[in-house]
Amino acid sequence: MTSPDTVKLADLCDLVAVQVDPVEHAGSLYVGLEHVASGQFVRIGGGAGADVQSSKFAFEKGDILYGKLRPYLDKAVLADTGGICTTELLVLRAKAGVDPRFLIGVVHAPRFIEQAVAGTTGVQHPRASWAHISEFELPKFDTHEQKQIAELLWMVHDAITACDATIRSGAALKRTSMRELFTRGLKGEPQKETEIGQVPDGWTFERLGDVAEIEYGAQAAVANAIDPTIGTLILTNVNLDLDGHINLEKRRYYKVPEAHKERLSLRKGDVLFNWRSGSADHVGKTVYFDLDGEYTYSSFILRFRPHRCVANKYLFRWLTYLRINGFFVSQRNVSSINSVYNASLSSTIPIWFPPEDEQNDIIAILDAIDLKIDLHRRKRAVLDELFKTLLHKLMTGEIRISDLDLSVLDLETKAEAAE
């Protein structure tokens, strides 16, 4: 039973389950689970009613489309127009006096997700039910405070969306720049056709094995994972991101045998190459190692260390360019389980490179683009943490909107708009 200071989700919205035949709504927007991203307030795409079959739910602009399948995925969006949706989305309609922009915040709140998950049924395909989530309790907010909370949450949400757009455009710029830099160079030279496509006519050709030392990582690294107090942090495939970053969210430790310490110890400037993976597009993931401290690397990673002609970071950029353009996928050996690009095959990778000064200029251009992308990645991480904190503390009443000084956020929003 709710107290005078709390309400249930059922007090804020109704479940609307109007089933329709998509044949009769061929021209309508269709929203499936694939069009709803985790943690986002708005859909990321949509289909057409003409492209789907079986009964669907009808929804209106302003309805909340809540993903009941695997509620821990945190999928729910505010409908920006009417349409039809999969029956895996519950259609929730705000009651009179309830701001739908506030309601979407409620169903994304961490405590709500916890309750939804706790009440799921089904093992392989756990689903939340309206009967369970409708009992979710939260503090009672008047219409004015609902609006204020909604405005704050949407301000941060929109800032995150803007960061994502900048990151995507930066990544697209980097891909375009790499293609231009590695096919045309910086000196306006004529081009020539090679096994990897066009390159500037004056560039030098070598095979990777002729310009760099190639080493395998530690065998059975995961099986030998041990306590960090007596081991070295080991980089495995999961630590190498497709965007060229080293991701340390998952950490494992390995006691490096004394006899192999020199071979297995990483130093700044090493280039790490994912040579074996169950996913073909992950073969050839390459990162530039520039971390402080002691690190080693696992057996599915090759360590390249240039010893002449080619700058370390240029090699990193070149190998990334080859992967993005599908070179490793087209050349790899394939077994029934893994895509393989081992040390022997890696030694034959073609390396085209300009003189040292042009290598450095290419590195500088791509570093500058990465710097901007990384800046927005860090900003997004801060905003994401702020967003989660606000969702939790506002929806539990731990803090009230009147307690917050929003002038700083207002100034930042104006600065973003000006930029």
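The above is record 1. Record 2 follows with the same two-line structure.
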Amino acid sequence: MTKSELIEAISLKIGVPKKRAEDVVNAVFDSMKDALLGDERIEVRGFGSFSIRERKAKKGRNPRTGEQVFVDKKKSIHFRPGKELRSIVDKK
């Protein structure tokens, strides 16, 4: 599902104009982005949680040449599905 499809689905589901649904979706995404940038954990009960994990620096290998390279430490976003979402997906 793309962002525009999500906006369309919300607009139809709650009966609001697409522009209003777009404002809501953008507000939610902006709030989530701000929380993650502030190293906060986001938890949506029944859906899952998002958190920031820091990966250590390591030695890697260039797959094309086989040459060893150094990979800097970096942060990544981790999603852990909630029990409810996990059980719904398992039943499919």
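The helical segments are 3-14, 18-37, 83-91.
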